Amino acid sequence: MYEKNGEKYFIVDSHMHYWNAAPDNWVPGAEQYAKGWIECFHAYQSLGPKETHWPIDHFQKYSEDDLMKDVFEDGHVDVAIFQPTDLKEWYKEGFNTTERNAALGEKHPGMFIANTRFDPRDSDAGLEDLRRNVERYGSKGVKLYTAEWNNGSRGYKLSDPAAYRFLEKAQELGIKNVHVHKGPTIWPLDKDAFDVSDVDHAATDFQGLNFIIEHVGLPRIDDFCYMATQEPNVYAGLSVVTGALMHARPKFFARVMGELLFWVGEDKMTFGSDYGIWEPKWQVEGLVDWQMPDDEQFADYQKLTTATKKKILGLNAARLYDIKVPDECQLPAGAGTPAAKDDAQLVTGQ
């Protein structure tokens, strides 16, 4: 755990990956897309501190030892949650698969949670894969990429009838948490497929599921906030918010955090490093040290308390995933300033 000024923080990295985007994994005939995808990811890394930038060959395929050191030994993370993305249109063995992630998790018991994924365009075969993965890996969550290409289709909506069929099956199988990529686009995917409007429909119709919207719909932060404040089961996943904005765009970071704290509330915000785009170390340390600026333009935004930071960095995700938190990292009842009482009760499962 991370400790600063006598305070202990239990860190849950709720959005990270173990990918293979090396050239020998590129699908013949789709090399331009496989290459362009990982190079676009690599460009996003430049938004972090210069000393954390990796050369492209290391970025394409980092090792198990690299990950364990960057995330746990140096990165202060106590539990990491894998969020898979297949992209098998471009990568022969997949880009960041459930199987690859889970195999690493099995080597390091208690350190990882292996979420799985689904794509409603895979029909009955996809439903069977979902069932098999949940039973095999005990997944409590799924990661959805609504802009992923699939056999000529360049995206789907959570509100599609086929998606509802998969959400129903996921709920039946015991899935609780649905992580959805709704944020900056990655070439060659289409920006419109990341719009957050379909979340509104699904969250209302599946109130037994938690929808963690990774990257909070950036750059559509206002659309996300106005939607999320009315949906008690919609959460703000801060991956990209911290990694892309805290260092490179500090004023915009302050605005995004201010809007999220006001509309969504500190009980429904979860930290994610988006490793290996960015390492967790500087993000965790930076968020613990960060405070809303004193500038007049930020005067109506909430200041962050230690309790706020502890919730965001780990306690909220721990509740969503039933992760045991050491007593010394717990908060007393009522600590912090949740956006609304009902939202606070939903997060804790009361």
Describe the protein:
The protein has 350 residues and is α/β, with parallel strands linked by helices. It is 39% helix and 11% strand. It is built from 13 helices and 11 strands. A 6-stranded parallel β-sheet has the order 6-7-8-9-10-11. Helix 5 (123-137) runs parallel beside helix 6 and helix 8 (221-228) packs parallel to helix 10. The relative contact order is 0.15.
- Measured as a percent range, the helix fraction is 25-40%
What is the rounded distance between the termini? Answer: 27 Å
Strand order of the largest sheet: 6-7-8-9-10-11
Total of helices: 13
H/E element sequence: EEEHHHEHEEHEHEHEHEHHEHHH
Helices and strands in order, then pairings?
Blueprint: E1 2-4, E2 7-9, E3 12-16, H1 31-45, H2 56-60, H3 64-73, E4 79-82, H4 98-107, E5 112-114, E6 116-117, H5 123-137, E7 141-144, H6 161-172, E8 177-181, H7 197-205, E9 210-214, H8 221-228, E10 234-237, H9 241-246, H10 250-263, E11 269-270, H11 280-289, H12 306-320, H13 341-348
Parallel strand pairs: 3-4, 4-5, 6-7, 7-8, 8-9, 9-10, 10-11
Antiparallel strand pairs: 1-2
Q: Which labels suit this protein?
A:
single chain, 350 residues, alpha/beta, 6-stranded parallel beta sheet, 13 helices
What can be said about this structure in brief?
The protein is α/β, with parallel strands linked by helices.
